[in-house]
Write a structure and sequence with these properties.
With about 375 residues, the chain is mainly α. The two termini are about 45 Å apart. It has a two-stranded antiparallel ribbon. Strands 3-8 form a two-stranded antiparallel sheet. The chain contains 14 helices and eight strands. Helix 9 crosses helix 11. It is globular. The longest helix has about 30 residues.
Length: about 375
């Protein structure tokens, strides 16, 4: 065939190819528009933005607890779900973030006869430094995290809980001891997230309403960053380490370095969650940052779905909101009552329920709740 004939054949086939691609692209756009997921995300986003105008303080605080838990669960899911590194010490890094913020932003004072140390830094700077200090604490532990795996790492990180509890209860000048210490409100660009009322659309905004949007922004930023990590080259390396560490090393993945790096990143997520929790609680208490909190975070990522950002958010919402709901409706629920009244306390009932949820997920839904398909979504 001559060159002229070949060129003519190309010209003849070109319009057909373009015409064939256009309907395919149009069909793809039509399929996407027919899927319910984008509309659900849009409706959910609008709803979250409007909730502070309609919910009372109890539910707003419950939602803020869920946001903080989701941020911490995303960090733990990067470590445990995506890399396969079991960590039992996540609560330790939440405590580092919360108390670092209090020490850096608070003022030196005397409370209950004890001198409390504070550096009086700008609160926004204290929040950033608290997250970095949590990452630095993870960096100090990262050489161990880079060389241990499985149950051995879990036992090693469990030691962090005992060390942390001892320090929190005994370093009274920094932590306030058993009674904790007050949390200074965050001030950002001249706007203070405190209980001073700010009227917006005839609705008085106090600390919970103000922190709601800060929590949403932090959760969105943390979720998008983690999703970018998991979908990029680092995410593929982390999954390779989780699936087969030796094979990943043979392919050129620096296993120890990635393990150490993801441990630091997970610690920074925990530090950010600790800062947000401290701002919501308005007072840090050492007893909160114990082993039970670490176990709750493990339950969050198992129930929601290991290795999934959406799964971490779903699991965190389930585990953190369940005791709040049971407490609020304890008068109308069977077998559940206030502590000391003869029935099951809401906190205990919630642990029974999400413990049963962990067993059910492991047996019947190994991918977690996040792996469930929406009605209009085709199974791959």
């Amino acid at each position: 065939m001559s060159e002229a004939t070949k060129d003519a054949a190309k010209d003849a086939t070109a319009p057909a190819t373009t015409a064939g691609q256009a309907p395919a692209a149009a069909a793809s756009i039509t399929d996407r528009l027919r899927r319910p997921a984008p509309y659900l995300w849009l409706a959910g986003s609008v709803l979250l933005l409007l909730l502070p105008f309609y919910l009372d303080r109890f539910w707003l605080q419950a939602g803020l607890f869920a946001m903080a838990a989701a941020i911490g669960a995303i960090g733990l899911n990067l470590l445990t779900g995506s890399t396969g590194q079991l960590s039992m010490g996540h609560a330790f890094f939440l405590a580092v973030g919360a108390y670092s913020y209090c020490v850096l932003a608070g003022e030196s004072s005397t409370e209950n006869g004890h001198a409390i140390t504070g550096l009086g830094l700008p609160t926004w700077l204290a929040a950033v430094l608290a997250v970095l200090l949590a990452g630095a604490a993870g960096g100090l532990f990262s050489p161990i995290a880079g060389r241990l795996s499985g149950a051995y790492l879990g036992i090693a990180t469990l030691a962090l809980i005992f060390i942390g509890q001892h320090v929190l209860f005994n370093a009274g000048s920094l932590t306030g001891g058993f009674n904790g210490r007050p949390v200074p409100p965050l001030s950002l660009f001249g706007f203070t997230f405190d209980d001073a009322e700010v009227v917006v659309a005839a609705v008085p905004f106090q600390s919970s309403e103000k922190l709601w949007y800060l929590g949403l922004a932090a959760l969105l930023a943390g979720g998008l960053f983690a999703r970018g990590v998991l979908r990029g080259r680092p995410g593929r390396a982390l999954n390779a380490i989780r699936d087969h560490r030796i094979a990943a090393g043979v392919m050129g993945v620096p296993v120890a370095r990635y393990r150490a790096g993801v441990f630091v990143l997970s610690s920074m997520y925990a530090g950010l969650a600790g800062v947000l929790l401290a701002l919501v609680f308005q007072r840090t208490v050492p007893e909160y940052f114990g082993m039970i909190l670490s176990l709750e975070y493990l339950a969050m990522i198992v129930i929601g779905g290991l290795g999934s950002v959406a799964g971490a958010v779903i699991g965190a919402a389930f585990v953190s909101l369940l005791p709040q709901v049971l407490t609020h409706y304890s008068d109308s629920l069977p077998l559940v009552s206030a502590p000391g009244t003869g029935g099951i306390a809401p906190g205990e009932a919630s642990r029974y329920l999400y413990g049963a949820a962990v067993v059910a997920v492991v047996l019947f839904l190994p991918g977690g709740i996040a792996r469930l398909k929406t009605p209009g979504e085709k199974k791959k």
